[in-house]
Amino acid sequence: MLRPRDTATRERRNLSGLWAFRLDPAGVGREAGWWQGRLPEAREMPVPASYNDVLVDAGVRDHIGDAWYQTTVRVPRGWAGQRVVLRFDSATHRAVVWVDDVEVASHEGGYTPFEADITAYARPGREIRVTAVVNNELTWQSVPPGVVEDTPSGRRQNYFHDFFNYAGLHRPVWLYCTSPDHIDDITVVTGLDGAVGTVDYRVEVAGAGEAAGDAVRQIRAVLEDAEGAEVARSTGASGVLTVEGVRPWQPGAGYLYTLRVELADGGELVDDYTLAVGIRTVEIDGTNFLINGEPFYFTGFGKHEDLPIRGKGHDDVFLVHDFALMEWIGANSFRTSHYPYAEEVLDHADRHGIVVIDETAAVGQNTGVGGGIVGSRPYPTFSPETINDASRDVHAQAIRELVARDKNHPCVVLWSVANEPESTTEASRDYFEPLFALTRELDPTRPVGFVNMLLARPGMDLVMQFSDVIMLNRYYGWYLNTGDLAGAETAWQAELEGWAAEGKPIIITEYGADTITGLHQVTPQPWSEEYQAEYLEMNHRVFDRIDAVIGEHVWNFADFATKSAIFRVDGNKKGVFTRDRHPKSAAHTLRRRWRGKN
Ligand code: GCB
């Protein structure tokens, strides 16, 4: 799915700003038709942002159900004769959208874009009213799952993942135009053979007329280097562009070519689109993870989209700052734990040579655990009444949308289909097997994995057989062997040796310790800055003894918000940086290690 872009034939308007906003706790707005006129009794709400923390109101923070957003926008006069599209980069967790009185889109899933062709309702020069109802309820059939429980004091949202259920319009909303016959999608796959690079491209064309895509239209593909000089060209809806003396995209050096695709009708340019292309390869060889044929060692973090006030609202200031901090500390990679991040983030990673493990929003598919606390829940994870075939359909669609959105990003080297699902039961195996197959069918060029949790040790895990890489979240010295780093070191090494025997590359996707910034101790105990640093050093000793370990991602880059719980004080404090991005002592420990490695 192509992002809106300004090109010679396309224009876009960003609808970010203050929208009219109203919560609908009683769920009456759909019946009452709140989209049919000016949103009644509305307040103002910035887009993009989570709505939860913007207003000073517990009812807003803990709202369950529908939230209504509305704005008006004038369709530019110059767009006459064009196809007009309304696109939401995300609406968490689902939405229905109207233009004036007409429903134009509905979408399930809070972290991938959706759009609607609104040409029929968008008269150039006229204003349109855009209304979206955004619903934040998590159910057994949503990804991630949750349960809305009826209690004597009202409805309560329960969920099994360890971050706050922020909701709203987290990313920009766009109005854009293309010509009626247009480039609908582009897929690139790149290859390297010594100094020769290849870009295999495929263009899909769509249009109002049946003629679109047939011989009447010509497609040209031109590849330019970073200075804008043409290096290869081809015609046709698919082809291979060959680059002599290629500059590969590599970790730490995100060199990008530009693929310019043009759709023409005789001498007339009908549509054009530009795509950043990094030429690189990814493959697994034994226990090595190869990028451009070279073994790659992941250093970095599991992150979150999480900020004070903004919640999960995308913010370019923090985007640039977080990447600057990652460079400072020597991180070469991160995982989009636990959902697809804003496309702006992946674009930035492409440009800066930061490697990304791209994860779906399938987190918390494990009722035996909640926020790291292992305990019993009154629900089985996979069953006809809980996570079932219908849930898997939603999960499959989330995978389709993730791959469709991110397939062309050179930074993305590995798909993660889920974080810490139940993986020891036959039901979990049956649930995941087709999802792995689907991911491979959608993208045969990248490895596929999932992130395993501590209840599924070597020999017990029935899902790992489908995974190209072993991704482990482990907390020896924190949830296990708490405060006992010597005991943790022995136990952790023993478990890792068990995994190493499987002969696949191992990435430690989470290890970390909650740490209160400013708490110092000479005999380090959990929660102190010294303990976090010693905990990390213990882990590193273990990793360095196991050859199959080819990556370490600390949990977490920064402190983040969670739901209220007796084991969370103002959120999860496993950040190496505080929520407002001050380093804890462990940041220096990591910097010494990682800057030495990279
Ligand atoms: C995990 C989860 C992560 C939690 C973390 C923790 O294993 O994947 O979402 O935040 O543990 O801190 O408990």
Number of strands: 34
Relevant CATH superfamily of the largest domain: Glycosidases
| Regions with little confidence, pLDDT below 50 for 5+ residues | none
CATH level 1 name of the largest domain: Alpha Beta
β-strand amount: 25-35%
Total number of domains: 3
The bound ligands are: (2S,3S,4S,5R)-3,4,5-trihydroxy-6-oxo-oxane-2-carboxylic acid
Largest sheet: 8 strands, parallel, barrel
Tell me, briefly, the overall form.
globular
Q: Which second-level CATH architecture of the largest domain applies?
A: Alpha-Beta Barrel
Q: What is the count of helical runs?
A: 9
The main sheet orders its strands as 25-26-27-30-31-32-33-34
Output mean pLDDT. 96
The radius of gyration is: 24 Å
Q: Percent of residues in helical segments?
A: 10-25%
Structural class: alpha+beta
The CATH topology of the largest domain is given as TIM Barrel
